[in-house]
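Thread amino acids onto this structure.
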C-alpha cells in the first residue's frame, strides 16, 4: 500500500529550448506539500519558463514532471490526458493579472468555476467568500479598468483559489505594481502561507522570499546554481554566482 504523496510537484531533468537556445537545462526540483519554494535569478534565466512548464503552458523538450503523484510529462511527451483537471490542480497567478476586462471582479472569479461544472449558486458564494478573503468584498461589481493594479492582482489570486488547487504558482506577482499595491498583494500571500498553501513563486522580492519561503532556488542560465534554506542562500550563499547576483540586487536598491 502506497503512503501519502509528500511532494505536490516533482521535476526531474527538465529541459526546454526556444529557437535553439536552451532555457532550461536538466532542472531537478521538488515542492513538498504545504511548502513554499521561491525561485530567484536574473531576467531571462529560465524562471518563468520553469513555472509555465509545471502546468504545461509550455511543453518541455525532456524530463519528467509529476503533479500530486501523477506523471503529466515524461521524455518530451505530455502524458496528462486531462489538461483541464491539471489546471484545476495547479493554479497560476500571472504577472499581468490576465483578468477578463468585460467581466466584473466577481464574474472573473465565477467563470472558471462554471466552466469546471460548479453550480452557479455555489460558484457565486465561493467567489464572494474569496473576494472577502483577499480584502475586496466591496469591489465585487467593479470592472478591471476601475481597479488598481494591486486590486486586480488580488482578484487574480481569488480566481486561482476558486478551483481549490493543490499548489499555487506565482509569476512575479508584484513586478508591475507600485509599492502600496505590492504591500497589499504580499499581505494576501503571507496569509496564504500561514494557512499552509503549497506555493511555488518566481519573485524579485528577496526580503519577502526570505521571510515566507521554506526553500529558495537560484536559477541562472537555465540551471539551478544553488538551493537551500532562505537564510543560507540569501544570507550566506556558497556559490560565487549567487553572491554576484545578490550584490547586484543590493546595488540596485533591492530590485527597485
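Threaded sequence (256 positions):
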Amino acid at each position: 500500500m502506497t503512503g501519502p504523496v509528500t511532494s505536490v510537484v516533482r521535476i526531474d531533468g527538465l529541459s526546454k529550448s526556444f529557437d535553439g537556445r536552451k532555457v532550461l537545462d536538466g532542472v531537478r526540483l521538488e515542492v513538498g506539500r504545504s511548502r513554499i519554494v521561491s525561485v530567484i535569478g536574473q531576467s531571462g534565466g529560465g524562471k518563468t519558463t520553469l513555472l509555465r512548464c509545471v502546468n504545461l503552458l509550455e511543453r518541455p523538450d525532456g524530463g519528467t514532471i509529476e503533479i500530486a503523484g501523477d506523471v503529466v510529462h515524461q521524455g518530451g511527451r505530455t502524458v496528462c490526458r486531462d489538461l483541464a483537471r491539471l489546471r484545476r490542480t495547479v493554479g497560476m497567478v500571472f504577472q499581468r493579472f490576465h483578468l477578463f476586462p468585460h467581466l466584473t471582479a466577481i464574474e472573473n472569479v465565477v467563470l472558471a468555476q462554471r466552466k469546471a461544472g460548479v453550480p452557479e449558486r455555489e460558484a457565486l458564494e465561493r467567489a464572494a467568500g474569496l473576494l472577502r478573503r483577499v480584502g475586496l468584498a466591496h469591489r465585487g461589481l467593479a470592472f478591471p479598468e476601475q481597479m488598481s493594479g494591486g486590486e486586480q492582482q488580488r482578484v487574480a489570486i481569488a480566481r486561482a483559489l476558486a478551483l481549490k488547487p493543490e499548489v499555487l504558482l506565482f509569476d512575479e506577482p508584484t513586478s508591475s505594481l507600485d509599492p502600496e499595491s505590492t504591500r497589499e498583494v504580499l499581505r494576501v500571500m503571507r496569509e496564504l502561507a500561514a494557512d499552509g498553501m503549497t506555493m511555488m513563486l518566481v519573485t524579485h522580492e528577496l526580503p519577502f522570499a526570505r521571510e515566507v519561503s521554506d526553500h529558495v532556488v537560484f536559477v541562472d542560465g537555465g540551471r539551478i546554481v544553488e538551493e537551500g534554506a532562505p537564510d543560507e542562500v540569501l544570507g550566506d550563499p556558497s556559490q560565487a554566482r549567487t553572491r554576484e547576483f545578490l550584490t547586484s540586487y543590493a546595488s540596485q536598491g533591492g530590485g527597485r
